[in-house]
User: Fold this.
Amino acid sequence: MTVYKPYLDGSAFTPENGYHGSGQGIGEKLFTVGHLWRTGIGNNQR
Assistant:
């Protein structure tokens, strides 16, 4: 679950992490893991 923590606490949504937009530094209240048969963040090749 540690891979998801930055998305929940908002630390992933900063310019230093490549995020530019509204809601900088604001975490998600709801975050689905493995939605629609996908394994989630961390398993893509990008």
